[in-house]
Write a structure and sequence with these properties.
The structure is a single chain. The protein is elongated. The longest helix is centred in the C-terminal third of the chain and has 31 residues, at 387-417. Helix 4 (98-113) packs across helix 7, helix 7 (260-278) packs across helix 8 (283-290) and helix 12 runs parallel beside helix 14 (454-475). The protein is 47% helix and 14% strand. The protein folds into three domains: 3-114 and 262-337, HUPs (Rossmann fold, 3-Layer(aba) Sandwich), CATH 3.40.50; 117-191, Methionyl-trna Synthetase, domain 2, CATH 2.170.220.10; 391-535, Isoleucyl-tRNA Synthetase, Domain 1. The chain has helices at residues 19-38, 54-63, 67-84, 98-113, 197-205, 212-223, 260-278, 283-290, 310-323, 357-363, 366-375, 387-417, 429-450, 454-475, 477-483, 485-506, 511-520, 532-535, 557-566, and strands at 3-8, 42-49, 91-94, 117-127, 132-133, 139-142, 151-152, 169-173, 182-191, 231-232, 234-235, 257-258, 299-306, 333-337, 340-342, 345-346, 383-385. The strands form five sheets. It has a five-stranded parallel beta sheet, sandwiched between helices. A four-stranded antiparallel beta sheet has the order 5-4-9-10. By secondary structure, it is α/β, with parallel strands linked by helices. The protein binds one RNA strand through helix 2, helix 6, strand 10, helix 7 and helix 9.
RNA sequence: GGGCCUGUAGCUCAAUUGGUCAGAGCAGAGCGCUCAUAACGCUUUGGUUGGGGGUUCGAGUCCCUCCGGGCCUACCA
């Protein structure tokens, strides 16, 4: 048994996430966590809401609530949706937790002591009307290059030219529209990533088998131009983790907070501490996952994220941990995903384009979505959600191939033999061959799951479902029953055992359906089928079962068209 | 501008990384079965792997070029 630490990129607090966000980190990480648990490994699966930063403050203001209250509410909403999608986090924390305050301040202090923090005075745009410094992208104005009137301070979206806020003509606050802007001097802390560049570079080089997407993004940042640049890790905001040197004041930095991307990854660790506290466990319980000097040496740490998060996880966060000089556990494997698009364009939170987590659950149970999203995960390139494809996959894979198999086996048994696993008959060549084929395919499936090849894993799982239908077709118990009832009993006994086997191996993908299958069989033995031959004899003659309700219903053309219409534009 | 990824049957995607690999699922066609959610099984029609050029005994797989799609480019997170 191994110990596996799994983290999903933290969803940002300012609203309900869409399916693209879900499939980029939380869902595949859940698949992996569930599979690892199913194989008997000790798993710590961590996620949290990422609560700091300007967008959170603005979203709270828009909602007319204090930011702390807003975040608490949105955390509860996101936690509820996570439960709705059956995301099996051991802990779903908050980056605003006391634990994260302490650890972030501690690590900043360590970095300072190691000489890896630089204090830099710089000029930033301040808006008296908004009462805040404005990040570059919150300043709008006319592009000096192309004349576009709504260019942002970081880049003109029209001509893609990189801009400095002071380049803009007629600059104004994107928040209030105020043109009363001034440039103020302010001091900030920079993490001297440049000083750690060689160490990080060597560390990235030492990794094998990481997705190209992961390493290519990291190398680009390491080698582009002058190489890895220092990064500002503080902001002039109210909401965040106050800048401190461990538990001491940091002179000159009063009133400033750490930048969200400094404290967010640290929350992976802090959330594990939150988990320990929530469960009444001592610090040693979480430190054995994170401190290589306190037991984390044998931990395998895997991170899941969308490609936009890769720089922070390959560079900034490792720099933070390495630079601390303390033996923190570094990530062993980074699984990154491309984007999921929606019907010819991008999902858009602002435009309400696409399907959001709450809406998805209002339409169909989570298993339908889990299956489609996982079997179409954007691994090698961006992928696309279309209602036609969703309908086809759900109806064929879930309803026809798996659901109907369970239905035909259980109903046939009930009508011919009654509500218990029938006795009689012996396995022949066909059954032996089936067990061998299941073993073979299962080993392939396991290899894909181990390697986090999500789509292939789904395809292999489906192929194993198909084997059940092929077997029934060849064995034809409905025909055999007429001449040799005992042989038919053996065949259908195998079929019922196949249902249990399917429940076990399908559980990481479709946990609710798996539970329904197992419940109908009156069984609670979730042991992994190491050997199909034995697993297919697990339910013995006389064991009672019931016919489950329809596992998956079909999506009608009318529903498909209705949904396509409903989610094409404006949310609500 | 620079960098990276990507373009394979109508659709969604595979090809152990130069050597029978041109494949699977869906859709289409034909046949079979009747236990089942008009479900299942078998067979089968589709591609000169975006265009062009090159390297090689041999290239979706390497190089050049052109065309198309996407992402990143450090103050959104």
């Amino acid at each position: 048994m191994a110990r596996v630490l799994i983290t999903s990129a933290l969803p940002y607090i300012n609203g309900i996430k869409h399916l693209g966000n879900l499939v980029g980190s939380q869902l595949p990480s859940d698949l992996y966590a569930r599979y690892m648990r199913a194989r008997g490994h000790e798993v710590m699966f961590i996620c949290a809401t990422d609560e700091h930063g300007t967008p959170a403050e603005l979203a709270a203001a828009k909602a007319g609530k204090p930011v702390a209250e807003y975040c608490a509410e949105m955390h509860a909403v996101q936690a509820g949706l996570a439960r709705g999608f059956r995301l099996s986090f051991d802990h779903f924390g908050r980056s605003s937790s006391p634990q994260n305050h302490r650890l972030t301040q501690h690590l900043a202090g360590r970095l300072r002591a190691a000489g890896l923090i630089a204090e830099v005075s710089e000029k930033q745009v301040y808006s008296p009307a908004d009462g805040r410094f404005l990040p570059d992208r919150y300043i709008e104005g006319t592009c000096p290059n192309c004349g576009y009137e709504r260019a942002r301070g970081d880049q003109c979206e029209e001509c893609t030219k990189q801009l400095d806020p002071t380049d803009l003509i007629n600059p104004r606050s994107a928040i209030s529209g105020s043109t009363d802007l001034e440039v103020r001097e302010t001091k900030h802390l920079y993490l001297r990533q440049s000083a750690l560049r060689d160490r990080i570079d060597a560390w990235i080089d030492s990794q094998t088998g990481w997705p190209v997407l992961t390493t290519s993004i990291a190398r680009k940042w390491l080698h582009d131009g002058d190489g890895l640049q220092d990064r500002g890790i503080t902001r002039d905001l109210d909401w965040g983790i106050p800048v401190r040197d461990g538990t001491d004041d940091w002179p000159g930095m009063e009133g400033k907070v750490f930048y969200v991307w400094f404290d967010a990854p640290i929350e992976y660790i802090s959330a594990t501490a939150e988990w320990a506290e929530a469960n009444g466990l001592p610090d040693a319980a979480w430190r054995r996952w994170w401190r290589t000097d306190e037991g984390a040496d044998d931990v395998r740490y895997v991170q899941f994220m969308g490609k936009d998060n890769v720089p922070f996880h390959t560079l900034s966060f490792p720099a933070t941990l390495m630079g601390s000089g303390e033996p923190w556990k570094l990530v062993d494997y980074i699984k990154s995903f491309n984007y999921l698009n929606y019907d010819g364009g991008q999902f858009s939170t602002s435009l309400g384009r696409g399907v959001f987590m709450d809406q998805a659950l209002a339409i169909l149970p989570s298993d339908y979505w889990r299956w489609w999203l996982l079997s179409h995960a954007p691994e090698s390139s961006d992928s696309e959600f279309t209602w036609e494809n969703f309908q086809a996959s759900v109806n064929k894979d879930l309803a026809d191939v798996l659901g109907n198999f369970v239905s035909r086996v259980s109903k046939f048994c009930l009508s011919k033999f009654g509500p218990a696993v029938p006795d009689g008959g012996e396995w022949g060549d066909r059954e032996t061959a089936l067990a061998a084929e299941i073993n073979r395919r299962l080993r392939v499936h396991e290899g894909c799951m181990e390697a986090m090849e999500v789509r292939k894993s789904a395809a292999e799982l489906r192929a194993i479902w198909v084997l059940g239908n092929e077997y029934l077709q060849e064995a034809a118990p409905w025909s055999v029953f007429k001449s040799d009832p005992a042989a038919a009993a053996m065949q259908i006994r195998l079929g019922l055992n196949l249902v249990r086997l399917y429940a076990v191996i399908s559980r990481p993908f479709i946990p609710d359906a798996a539970a329904a299958m197992m419940a109908a069989l009156g069984c609670d033995d979730w042991s992994w089928p190491e050997d199909a031959s034995a697993a297919l004899r697990l339910l013995e003659p006389g064991h009672g079962f019931s016919v489950p309700d329809m596992l998956f219903r079909k999506i009608t053309d009318a529903e498909r068209d209705d949904w396509a219409q409903r989610f094409s534009g404006t949310r609500g």
